[in-house]
Design a protein that fits this description.
By secondary structure, the protein is mainly α. It folds into three domains: 42 residues; 40 residues, no CATH class; 90 residues, no CATH class. Helices cover 56% and strands 3% of the residues. It has nine helices and two strands; from the N terminus they run αααααβαβααα. A two-stranded antiparallel ribbon has the order 1-2. Helix 1 packs antiparallel against helix 2 and helix 8 packs antiparallel against helix 9. The longest helix is centred in the last third of the chain and has 27 residues.
Amino acid sequence: MKEAIYKSYFKKKGQKVVDMNNASIDHGINELIAVEIPEAWAAAEDAPKQDNVPEFIKEIVAPMNRQQGDALTVGQMMKYGLEDGTWPAGTSQYEKRGMSLSQEAEKDAVQSGYWQLYRYNPDLAEQGKNPFQLDYSKEPNGEFQTFIKGQNRYASLKLSFPEKADGLYEKAEADAKHRFETYKELADD
């Protein structure tokens, strides 16, 4: 691999780029860890699938989730009364997965103080009311550092610049606290 890097980069980019790529390879190799897989997993079987999915989901929602909605016919749409643009309620449980995980991460981000939830409604200003609303005004739960260390970009920072990471984590937390206090003041006006 290092030989290929030398051939690809030496003439065009120079030895410094070759050295950086080689260092990256060495770092990756040094960070490899063994993952033990229980022997019982070799005989594991999938749980039996129950196919109690409604026809609407099979014929309309599933193709759309697979980015194949263009293949749906007008007849299929009319069969389910979709020609007026309405959509049946209760279909979200069959739509793309993974949202519950992202919603949990978003909740952690808000509660830790990493994200602030707020709205600005100019109509309220016209009514003489404060247009800025802080939707989650509870004090952060003290888990800011735990939250950011669970995020890839911050974990990568610790691996790449261990001597600087903690100071940057603290600065990020201080900035988030300042932003929260500023937003609280704006919402209280």
